[in-house]
Specification:
The protein is an alpha/beta fold and 443 residues long. The protein has 13 helices and 17 strands. The chain folds into two domains: 105 residues, no CATH class; 261 residues, Rossmann fold. α6 runs parallel beside α10, α7 runs parallel beside α8 and α10 packs across α11.
Length: 443
């Protein structure tokens, strides 16, 4: 046995490429349609015996590993004497084999990401103003947090709650403009293109004395500043739920390609919305599954468009079941479920700011009645206690800065979203808590 047969050539560390293990070469060759033996044909049908492989610079043990030199440059002085440097012919053969295998690897289709996309959610509760609103907003925020972590299965580390504390937490993290913008900037560096990002804002909005803003403890958060902070986000699936009063005026600033924005009100509406309640119920109870007629499908999965349609319809229905009862500052509510919801959202002890009293004449012993979505003319003529629907939720998901409402002129007209660029085209493929969009339809 000569020196070449009894020694193994190993290129210096700085010239070596990654090592191909025994299973790698057969996989590459077979993926390219090249039949390959398990022991002999190491690549492209080339028979590689133990001595020839060793002579060509391939280290072969009991379970051979193929080491491919990245360069045929001469090793450092003295290296050849220590390692048994092969002759030029063998070095050329090894280099050719390396180039061939590398070409096969480059010709293969790109691999899917090793990990599926993740979902990151940020829930912020603004300045409540009254104890009744504080109770309402905290309830909604806690239910969003529970839905993301329990129902959607997100890790708790992926769901940030500002302004109120989740169940079991020691104390809430204050929702200040600095805290919200700081968390958005942090997520901008952590969120990947294959991820989903969801922002939920609960509280009061305002358009008084300037552009729309989110009311907070300390300085309020201008929506324009929030839009700037959201700009660097790389997530290809973005959702913003602006469930505040005066939220419709914020849609134009928040519109962005790859983002679906839902506002609880239309531009110019400043009523205290209850849209979040019905949006949550549609998710929690699954009642939004298939909502929107032809725009929805009953399949066990609630899409963003279905949740929007469900809440956009149930909100005015509930409003139309609530009347002011005379001059006693009491509210007459019709229907078992509607009475229970009024008590949860509005009722408070006498003298409590922001609270409303339920009239003893309310009917909690009957099912919720069917009501017209538009206020009849005879009611408007007297205006005796009638409550007019003053919140029309809008959806923007085409990057056009113009939101679309499903409730218009007292008529509910679902957003079809069947063609690219139509309102709802993106939202009908989005599922909250799921990074990937549903297949089919426009991108």
């Amino acid at each position: 046995m000569n020196d070449l047969e009894s020694s193994t050539y190993r290129a210096p560390e700085e010239t070596r490429m990654s090592v191909l293990r025994p299973g790698d070469v057969p996989r590459v060759a077979m993926a390219c349609g090249i039949p390959i033996g398990r022991r002999r044909a190491m690549a492209c049908g080339i028979s590689v015996g133990r001595r020839r492989a060793m002579a060509c610079g391939i280290s072969v043990g009991r379970r051979p590993a193929l080491e491919i030199p990245a360069s045929t440059a001469s090793p450092a002085p003295g290296t050849a004497a220590r390692t048994g440097r092969p002759p030029p012919r063998c070095r050329r053969r090894a280099a050719g084999l390396a180039a061939l295998l590398l070409g096969f690897a480059l010709a293969l289709p790109a691999a899917e990401p090793s990990a599926a996309g993740a979902c990151h959610a940020l829930i912020a509760v603004g300045l409540p103003g009254t104890p009744v609103h504080a109770r309402r907003f905290a309830d909604w925020a806690g239910r969003f947090h529970a839905w993301f972590t329990a129902k959607a299965g997100l890790p708790t580390a992926n769901v940030t709650l500002l302004g109120t504390a989740p169940v079991g937490a020691a104390a809430p993290v204050p929702a200040t403009a600095e805290a919200i913008l700081g968390e958005v900037r942090r997520l901008a560096t952590a969120v990947r293109p294959e991820d989903q990002f969801v922002l939920v804002l609960l509280g009061h909005g305002s358009v008084v004395d300037g552009p729309p803003k989110f009311l907070l403890t300390g300085p309020d958060l201008p929506v324009a500043d929030l839009a700037v902070a959201l700009e660097p986000l790389r997530a290809g699936n973005q959702v913003v739920l602006m469930l505040t009063s005066a939220s419709g005026d914020a849609v134009s600033a928040l519109a962005h390609a790859g983002r679906a924005t839902i506002a609880a009100t239309s531009p110019g509406e400043t009523a205290e919305p209850v849209f979040a309640e019905f949006f949550l119920r549609g998710l929690e109870e699954g009642t939004a599954d298939g909502a929107g007629g032809a725009a929805g499908t009953v399949d066990g999965t609630v899409t963003l468009l279905e949740a929007f349609h469900h809440a956009a319809l149930e909100t005015p229905r509930w409003i139309r079941r609530v009347w002011r009862d005379g001059e006693n500052d009491e509210w007459l509510v019709s229907g078992r479920a509607s009475v229970a919801l009024f008590q949860a959202l509005c009722e408070a002890p006498p003298g409590s700011a922001g609270g409303r009293r339920l009239s003893p004449r309310s009917r909690a012993d009957v099912p919720d009645p069917e009501v017209p979505l538009a206020t009849p003319a005879k009611e408007l003529a007297t205006f005796a206690g009638v409550r007019v629907v003053s919140e029309h939720a809008v959806l923007e998901d085409a990057g056009t800065a113009i939101g679309a409402a499903a409730l218009q002129g007292g008529q509910f007209r679902p957003l079809a979203g069947t063609a690219p660029g139509e309102p709802g085209a993106r939202a009908r493929r989005i599922v909250l808590g799921r990074a990937t969009v549903l297949p089919g339809g426009p991108p």
